[in-house]
């Protein structure tokens, strides 16, 4: 990015931005290093450490904070409130989901105004939440979900869906189930759980190279064989014996590897669910519930 | 396949549930009350909170009490507290502040039509003699209305104006079912028959 930002001290015009030099996958795009571990010292089927917290924003009806490795997402839920004035009467509730990505969240500064990719992320999170919230209980009402990505280190959609679910539970919104999400990547026909941002970008670049090499009708020898892509699956583990709320996939994956990857993703979702449930139970046990219980 | 490896739950937390937890079989033994939903013949929790059962009409109901008490949007038949916003000849517009005894985070909009203000002589109602802007009223929700406002009614004796100020700003007390007074003047309102809570 070469434009001058007048609000900041950008350094001399001739300086090279550091991100050009940084990328570890620049030359040798290998996920697995020699000892069978990934670049951040994980096994292929190992997820990053995660942390969930709720009720962190006092002004919001419900809120949550999710960390997946270094990815950090904050969510605030407001409502149910009156729907924006419109001429259409809706007998079920509406969900307004807005994701904002902080300019400092990724290595290259992102615009604070949501771009097309972030808007698509908002729609994907909204799809997952609309499957889980019992909207029939909120006629003419609107539930606002605001997500802020503080640091994007891979698995952002998964973190956003889980954060939104936790915040909705904290806000006492009626739901069929808690939606949790996990992401899985395929690279060179192998499955990797919870890809980091470097791995996601590597797969995206490999996918682009594959696309351009196909269109230019030349086949180079060091092309990747087999599956190369990534998927994020959002799951409601208990509702109707397990329902996928939404699934976003990119890349090209062989049929044989697809099922293995999805199974791995769903299994990870169930592990995430166990942690999320513990956090919510803790929240209730620490809260003082309203005294009047007689009906 | 199922989620496991969670630490043992302390005994005081045994009745805490999260959305999606299956509570019991639905049927004659157990009915679903607030905070639950029925799916495939079972009752599931739909909110985070504590599970409890209660008896009503010799039947068992199971409910989940959440972190914030009862439901928070106006429903048909619920008693609401509202503030009068504007007065028109055929109706008044109000801002719904609380539903039953739960204060709303943000106000919803409602309206009371002329025919729903009182029970007798409904055609001869003068809106300006029944309500004034900024009065606090008790009303009952009749229906969801349209996209803009709920439909409400004050036609029962216990509904109507609870708190009002006179034109000069003094707090008024009721003197009859149709008027309230302060030390400087008397004004007409449709007064609510408020029953003290512990009777």
From TrEMBL, chain A:
Gene assigned in the entry: LOC108667200
Keyword terms of this UniProt record: Cytoplasm, Exosome, Nucleus, RNA-binding, rRNA processing
Native species: Hyalella azteca (Amphipod)
GO cellular component terms attached to this protein's record: cytoplasmic exosome (RNase complex); nuclear exosome (RNase complex); nucleolus
Positions of the Exoribonuclease phosphorolytic domain: 46-173
GO molecular function: RNA binding
Protein name: Exosome complex component MTR3
Location(s), subcellular: Cytoplasm; Nucleus
Chief place of localization: cytoplasm
Gene Ontology biological process: nuclear mRNA surveillance; poly(A)-dependent snoRNA 3'-end processing; rRNA catabolic process; rRNA processing; U4 snRNA 3'-end processing
Membership in a protein family: Belongs to the RNase PH family.
From TrEMBL, chain B:
The name this protein goes by in its record: Exosome complex component CSL4 isoform X2
Superkingdom in the source lineage: Eukaryota
GO process annotations (BP): RNA processing
Gene this chain is encoded by: LOC108681483
Pfam families xrefs: ECR1_N, EXOSC1
Keywords for this protein: Cytoplasm, Exosome
GO molecular function, one term: RNA binding
Compartments in which it is found: Nucleus, Nucleolus
GO CC terms: cytoplasm; nuclear exosome (RNase complex); nucleolus
Primary residence: nucleus
Exosome complex component CSL4 C-terminal domain residues: 105-144
Residue span, Exosome complex component N-terminal domain: 16-52
